[in-house]
Design goal:
Blueprint: H1 11-21, E1 29-33, H2 35-38, H3 44-56, E2 62-65, H4 76-81, H5 87-95, H6 114-119, E3 125-126, E4 134-137, H7 141-145, H8 159-165, E5 169-173, H9 183-188, E6 195-204, E7 207-216, H10 223-233, E8 238-243, E9 246-252, H11 253-267
Parallel strand pairs: 1-2, 1-5
Antiparallel strand pairs: 2-4, 3-4, 5-9, 6-7, 8-9
Helix pairs in contact: 1-3
């Protein structure tokens, strides 16, 4: 279903466009956003955050990925950073990597501006996973972020599973299905998913230490194709529209995860 809107991208107009798109206060909203795609807004990113919260209302809960690759030497970001360095250079980078701290460690820059705005907002809560945390604002924030096991990136003991249970929606605000983190929950739900070892720096008893753990081997390389098939299938509600200058999709999370689980079984 297509929804369109025109006009100056003010905070008030963004709120109206979000509501027109179908953002509802009775279910949590997981947002992946490119504020550059939204375009200039009076008040900048803070105004976009206020528009999202206004569209959700006081009963709505806003959730964003608050991932941190900077404390892991098995992340794609780290491997790219040390590419071409000699052994001494790699060791120096690794020695300088900080341990995860939910209260102070900034979100990865690649996530865009919005996650850091949410994370630092008074009242925001953040989950405990040292690499794939989520931040949330609203009545269901604690329910969403609590119990995020440190050896479960995006599976049954992560905020994604809680969002599934709460029948959350996903807002792709100027981003494509390639950024749709919820699809990862489908990876955990296939039979015998491949696994791998991850490693990161954590804080224990006030000191930093390296910690290794095994979890599902995450792969978002085919998420764009998966999302295109989801949209064509009609298996999950996908509403399209414009917020500011950004092309957007609003997706029901649970049907999208169910579709992804079946899609991975057939295509991987």
């Amino acid at each position: 279903m297509a929804v369109t809107g025109t006009g100056t991208p003010t905070e008030h107009r963004l709120t109206g466009q979000l509501r027109e798109l179908g953002v509802r206060p009775d279910r949590p909203l997981l947002v992946h956003a490119s504020l550059r795609a939204v375009g200039p807004v009076a008040g900048g990113g803070a105004a976009v955050l206020r528009a999202l919260r206004a569209a959700l209302g006081p009963d709505g809960t806003l959730v964003v990925p608050a991932f941190t690759a900077r404390n892991s030497d098995t992340s794609a970001a780290h491997l790219e950073r040390v590419r071409g360095l000699d052994e001494a250079g790699r060791a120096a980078v690794r020695a300088a990597m900080p341990p995860y701290d939910a209260g102070t460690m900034p979100c990865d820059e690649g996530l865009g501006v919005l996650p850091e705005l949410v994370r630092t907002r008074p009242g925001a809560l953040r989950s405990a996973h040292p690499q794939t945390s989520f931040a949330a604002l609203g009545p269901y924030a604690e329910k969403v972020v609590s119990g995020h096991r440190p050896d479960c990136h995006l599976g049954e003991d992560s905020p994604l599973a809680r969002l599934y249970d709460l029948r959350a929606s996903i807002l792709l605000l100027g981003t494509g299905f390639g950024a749709c983190t919820a699809f990862h929950l489908g990876e955990y739900r296939v039979a015998r998913p491949p696994r791998r070892t991850y490693r990161c720096v954590v804080r224990e008893d006030g000191a930093a230490r390296w910690w290794s753990y095994e979890d599902v081997a995450l792969d978002d390389g085919d998420f764009a194709a998966l999302g295109a098939d989801l949209e064509r299938s009609g298996a999950g509600t996908v509403r399209t529209g414009t917020v500011g200058a950004a092309a957007c999709r609003l997706v029901d999370l649970a049907p999208a995860v169910d579709f992804a689980q079946g899609w991975f079984t057939r295509h991987r």
